[in-house]
Design goal:
- The chain has 21 helices and 13 strands.
- By secondary structure, it is an alpha/beta fold.
- It has helices at residues 21-36, 55-68, 91-96, 99-109, 120-132, 148-156, 204-214, 230-240, 270-276, 280-288, 305-309, 324-337, 340-353, 366-371, 383-387, 399-406, 411-423, 430-443, 448-460, 468-475, 477-494; strands at 8-11, 40-43, 74-76, 82-83, 113-116, 162-165, 172-177, 181-186, 194-196, 219-223, 246-250, 253-254, 320-321.
- A hairpin with a 3-residue loop joins strand 7 and strand 8.
- It has a four-stranded mixed beta sheet.
Amino acid sequence: MESNRKIRVRFAPSPTGHLHIGGARTALFNYLFAKKYGGTFILRIEDTDELRSTKESMHSIFESMKWLGLTWDEGALDEEKEIGNYGPYIQSKREALGIYKKYADILIKNGYAYYCYCTPEELEEMRKKAQLEKRPPKYDGRCRNLTEDQRKEYERQGRKPVIRFRMPDEGITLWNDLIHGELKFENSLLYDFIMIKASGYPTYNFACVIDDHLMEISHVIRGDDHISNTPLQINLYKALGWEIPQFAHLSMILGPDGSRLSKRHGATSISEYKRLGYLPETMKNYLALLGWSTKDSQQIFEKGELEEKFSLEGCQKNPAIFDTVKLTWMNGEYIRKMTKEELYNAALPFVKEAGIDIETRKDLNVVEIVAIEQEKYKLLSDVPKLIDFFFKEDFEYDEASVEKVLKKDNVLNILNGIKDVYLKIDDFKEKIIEEKTREFAKNNGYKTSDVFHPVRVAISGRSAGPTLFKMIELLGKQRVINRIERTLSFLGARK
């Protein structure tokens, strides 16, 4: 750590949609950095995009961060509530207090900013001219030195000005990025960016500098798509005479095909992954591995380990690949680590959404039933389809199982015989059921598979499923007998 400043970091999303993978990774790395060094993690809402920002998006971001366990020490809690002494933590509220105008006025007074009256048509003309001349589109500075009379004439015409920052014409802006090393930009290639829009609202580059300074942010950790914004912001810090925070730009996240992660690669928002049945622990673990690793390339982290082991030194410059296959594998690993009660509670919303009345079934050991296929689950959304037959007496028989299993010779005799065996078992437990079933097969000259397969299909409707005798025990003696009789009737009706 190069700075002696108290560690204060922030995640500052724009509430124009749900919390996406890239934003969640940025939030996580800021959170982990703060936890590692005993710092403060701040959530600031940057709603300066007046047209696209919504309260619904803000609440969605809050909920996704809470789900991931990224608790913030300071920041907005909702539109009205917040925690911390550096607020407001919502930029529109800060704008209403005149915070940004105050510093814009100071910059104008000191010659670092100016009013620009150019129309959208004039700006478009500049852009087209730059294209024709094969140079980067850049504001040509025509309003830099307007006289008072020129300003008044523009205002008489009804033109509403923006306020632009006056970028130095010469020299180099450089900084030591904590991930990328030394980065530098020629000032002559930078542009006079807009600080205050005609609406009076600040732009991102202006507002975030003002807020980061006033909130005493020590480290700005964000995606490397912001690298081009950094020289603009550094020049703004210099113009205001403020200490510049340290910057760390995280690598881009790409899809498996090497293109930027987008909807065509599948789900992109945290709320979608929650709905699909991923665990928050999995998402947190997997997001941490997008552009960061330990020296020994550890993959699965126990609770609290990420907070202990994270460092910016472990962050890579190269793009990270978002691999859904690996994410799903990891989710299965986390599911297998859960206790039966934890799995039941996590799976309950998915089971209920599938229309299975599980909570009121006092006649069944629902915790054990949910856990019976724990080794097979990859997603919580897998649970309902693998256990639904426990709760439905009118299940349909898998047609392939009927053809391959129930239509075999001797199946009627086997099912009638095994029904009589099960009726005589008093202690209807897995071990005894297996013992008696094997004994029945041996005494009647059947292979065990000749007996096991028809019994499985008869009581579940399918040829694959959980361990047979545990399944029989969990269904209970009377229910198993009833299902065998139902299957005998079904086969009789088909003859």
